[in-house]
Amino acid sequence: MEESKGEVKHVLLAKFKDGLSEQLIDEYIKEYANLVNLVPSMKAFRWGKDVSIENMHQGFTHIFESTFESTQGIAEYVSHPDHVVFANKLLPLFEKVIVVDFKPTKVEV
């Protein structure tokens, strides 16, 4: 399947539940980042906080981006035991979350 090949970005937008300390959130972010060392199909990880002045974030505060070589790599990540254990700890901390996978496209101008 040709569509499954090529770099794919896995983007998670989240709003953590109120009352969680920044220290706790930072610990989870470090654990999330460490998945790149545990899950072979995960090639890179970046994250950041919303800094938009447009106020269109709908309450989402944190953005996490993981890079994979294919959609098959994302499937391997989703079912990887280390990811499953981590996700089961992290997801209950979110008030809301959206996950989107996309293939970056270069535009010739």
From TrEMBL:
List, alphabetically, the Pfam families matched.
Dabb
Q: Which SMART domains match?
A: Dabb
Q: Which InterPro entries match?
A: Dabb (IPR013097), Dimeric_a/b-barrel (IPR011008), HS1/DABB1-like (IPR044662)
Could you name the domain of life of the organism this protein comes from?
Answer: Eukaryota
Q: Which residues form a coiled coil?
A: none
- Annotated GO biological process: pollen tube adhesion
Stress-response A/B barrel domain ranges (all copies): 8-102
Listed PANTHER family: PTHR33178, STRESS-RESPONSE A_B BARREL DOMAIN-CONTAINING PROTEIN
Q: How does it assemble?
A: Homodimer.
Its name, as the record gives it, is Stress-response A/B barrel domain-containing protein
Classification of source organism = Eukaryota, Viridiplantae, Streptophyta, Embryophyta, Tracheophyta
